[in-house]
Design goal:
Largest sheet: 7 strands, mixed
Strand content: 15-25%
Strand order of the largest sheet: 15-16-14-13-17-18-19
Structural class: alpha+beta
Distance between the termini: 56 Å
Number of helices: 18
Shape: globular
Number of strands: 19
Length: about 500
């Protein structure tokens, strides 16, 4: 077949899209079209901060129905979403309780319990996953302790994309890349770790064997009765984004920039030694090997101040921000106080005041504080990662929606003292598509797809220009970003 119609459902923590990719094998041309875009907003239900799974499913089905109405029969469908969150089902396949968001406070203090027993080293050696207070391991412990009425009805637990696979096909699946984000997958065996599940208080029978990306879960049936394959892509959106990152150099690092910033490098072997533990890196599953990375709070901070201050013209805000003095106010973006505060503006101001720094008041000053702090954290993390692998990086690829922020891209190049290549913007969608094309036999592997991405989606380059402000404030920033502060989840208001 010379042409393919590939549907990618890409769900982020603030919005979702149904996208149509058209692939021409003869010309190696790949194009994207947005079919349907919709908001993804958390809601309070039964006292918890939850995802509206019924609405997300309705929006996905509406996007597929629109393609059906256009007379387009997809060759396949793939779904990618954020990680760590799950949906519980009973023996009849009905949802139990709510799909509680990772930003809910029910896991408060549970990571600290785990660090004491079964212990920090024990958990990291078994999973290789970064300690974050909302990991699925702690969500399940919270379920066991706080929602026993939910737990007693559960027959299986599915990550968000696998739940949506189930709703489209009626088939159960546990895709590997998203499973690794749970801090429940044993890094040696690739199976669910029974000892950690026992600590969480849930039975191992809830989880089936993790499957590598690219397997055919089942079929979605359109109104005419046509059956369309549903392929489990690299369902963690960052895994899909890295799949599409045009990493053509072995010393290239990546930064998936969005609500979260995920900075790392690819490796065929995991890093689980003392240095990796002390740096609090994570070894998440990729389409090939591991994504050795660190999670950074990212543009969530900017999104929240824009919501609070009712800022709608982001381009104008960034222009005003670029005129602000550099590095007057700094925060640790990974401080747990910023996970989901009542007021992000007030939380940033309080953090600056506590350190005796200039307090940002205007929107531009607040944004400058965020951008400078992110750039300094990028610098710190890229240095940690280079030390871990024993070699410097030669370039950094910024992908995802955040790569459209040219000012932040330049700050990143300046702070990291590396050339930055920005693009593609639709990285997670493209990686979703790429995994489907490989599964369909249209392309042989990840490398071939990355060459395709580089041809069809040109990159912007940012050279380091002025890093004096970042060098001068590096020591001051380091005092803000001690690992202990990142674990202080009990401080969330």
């Amino acid at each position: 077949m010379n042409k393919r119609n590939i549907v990618a459902v890409d769900l982020g923590a603030s919005s979702g899209r149904v996208m149509l990719a058209q692939w021409c094998a003869a010309s190696q041309q790949l194009s994207l079209r947005e079919v349907r875009r919709f908001a993804n907003q958390r809601r309070r239900s039964q006292g918890y901060d939850c995802w509206d799974m019924d609405r997300l499913e309705q929006e996905i089905r509406a996007g597929l129905a629109q393609l059906d109405a256009e007379g387009i029969l997809p060759d396949s469908i793939g779904i990618d979403t954020w990680g760590v969150d799950l949906v519980l089902l009973d023996a009849q396949g009905r949802r139990v309780g709510e799909a509680v968001s990772y930003r809910d406070k029910r896991t408060q203090g549970l990571m600290e319990q785990a660090l004491r027993e079964p212990g920090r080293e024990f958990i990291f050696q078994r999973t290789g996953i970064q300690f974050l207070p909302f990991n699925t391991l702690y969500q399940l412990r919270a379920l066991h302790q706080q929602q026993p009425d939910w737990q007693e009805s559960v027959a299986c637990a599915l990550m968000i994309p696998d739940y949506l696979h189930y709703r489209l096909t009626g088939e159960l699946n546990w895709e590997y890349t998203n499973a690794t984000t749970t801090q429940l997958l044993n890094i040696e065996s690739g199976e669910w770790d029974r000892e950690l599940l026992a600590w969480a208080g849930v039975p191992a029978g809830w989880f089936g064997k993790p499957q590598p990306p690219g397997n055919r879960v089942g079929y979605w049936t359109n109104a005419a009765g046509d059956k369309v394959p549903v392929i489990a892509v690299a369902t963690h959106d960052t895994a899909s984004a890295v799949f599409a990152a045009p990493l053509t150099h072995e010393d290239a690092a990546y930064l998936s920039s969005g609500i979260w910033s995920l900075m790392g490098f690819e490796s065929l072997q995991p890093y689980t030694g003392a240095a990796a533990l002390n740096a609090n890196v994570t070894n998440e599953g990729g389409a090939e090997g591991y994504r050795v990375l660190k999670n950074i709070m990212g543009l969530w901070l900017l999104q929240r101040i824009c919501e609070e201050l009712q800022i709608v013209d982001l381009c104008q805000l960034i222009e005003e921000t670029a005129r602000q003095p550099a590095c007057l106010a700094l925060i640790n973006p990974n401080d747990a106080r910023f996970i989901n505060p009542d007021s992000m503006v007030r939380e940033i101001q309080n953090a600056c005041a506590a350190q005796g720094m200039s307090i940002p008041h205007s929107p531009a000053a607040l944004a400058r504080c965020i951008f400078d702090s992110l750039a300094l954290l990028y610098r710190q993390v890229i240095q940690e990662l280079a030390s871990l692998r024993g070699a410097r990086f030669s370039q950094l690829h910024v992908v995802g929606g955040g790569c459209q922020n040219r000012f932040l891209n330049q700050l990143c190049a300046d702070a990291c003292e590396l050339p930055v290549f920005a693009g593609p913007v639709e990285a997670s969608t493209l990686g979703n598509v790429g995994c489907q094309l490989v599964a369909l036999g249209e392309l042989p592997d990840v490398a071939a797809f990355r060459r395709c991405v580089a041809r069809n989606f040109p990159l912007d380059k940012f050279e380091p220009m002025n890093n004096s402000a970042f060098r001068a404030t590096q020591a001051r920033f380091a005092a803000l970003s001690q690992p202990a502060k990142e674990l202080a989840y009990d401080k969330v208001d």
